[in-house]
Specification:
2 domains, 20 helices
Amino acid sequence: MLKLVTHSNIKLIKQRLLRSNHFTKCKNQMRYLLIIILLFFGVSSSNSQWVILQREADSLITRGADFIYNVEFDNAESCFKQVIKQYPYHPAGYFLDAMVEWWRIAMYRNNEKYDKAFLEKIEKVLNICDKILDTNHYDIGALFFKGGALGYRGRYYVNRKSWFKAASDGYTAFDILIKCQETASQNHDIMLGTGIYNYFAEVLPIEYPTLKPLMLFAPRGDKKLGILQLEACSRLARYSAVEAKVVLLQIFQDFEDDSPKAKAIAEDLHSRYPNNSFFHRYLGRSYVTTGDQYKWEKTWRDILLRYIDNQVGYDDITAREALYYIGYSLMQRGTYDMALKYFYKCDEASRKVDKEVTGFMIQTNLKIGKIYDLQKKRDLAIKQYKKILSWKDLNNSHKEAQDLLNKPFSY
């Protein structure tokens, strides 16, 4: 189970993180460490306390959450404004209103137009919580919502690469975690947070060894227990069931290589919230990894059409991914000329959305070279592989390109 951490240990963690060269040299690994802390508060802590409101507000909150997940932001805001009107001195309505802005940011990953509104709304939540905590340092509702607000703001700073601000919010949230552990009773909603922590606290230091020194004084994780907690939350929690499924989807697809389980969850979430591009993308990825070629091409074509129709959340990055997977399917079907058209567009999109060479750009150009080889256009294929050798080496891309230079690609 999640163990209690002392305040002295927290200070040691802070010192190791802020003074060690891991902070300056290992930003990607740092990002995951922060997410361990921030995710705990980004979801479950706040959700588990919604029950303290009256029945009518509880109904508005659950309805508003469904609107958020289905990207019906105006309807969600309407619900939460009613909560604020009924409970002007409680942080719940204000926190949920800020979550609308959070999901707007999540839908448009390269757009900063919603940043100011999000930060202002989070500040409002923190001010209300602090007023409550000035009179009662252990008010559970205020602690949970303050932790949630700091968690999401910290995640925002991670996304914007404001590392020190993210770390500051993460540590404050970690302090609040201790108080919450001392006073909050356990329920299935809280299992979302403990499940997230238990899973990632064990897995991430293995995936990223440079995290190990930073986790020495943090509670030990247990990934099997974490998955069990998340599964229990997904079945039994009152408010956090959907969010638990979201986390399990990411775990099974991105970490556990359990594509059948990821596909089942993605199909469930997409059927419930068909307008959510995040769920839609994971559905498409799950079909790719399970090898269901018909469904994978159909799904990514649907995603691309939604991008063309300017549907909320279907941004340039989403379109780039769709172009890649459609091209990959066409390549596997032997429709090489059409596949090249999609890969050319994908490469063009990569140069638009990325400021430097990325794995997506490399894989796209490798596949273009492979198609040239399959078409007996060896001179063009060689140019592609040499181009990749001129870029930085990502995931052994240089070795793969060199091998293809030495021997033409063939199925």
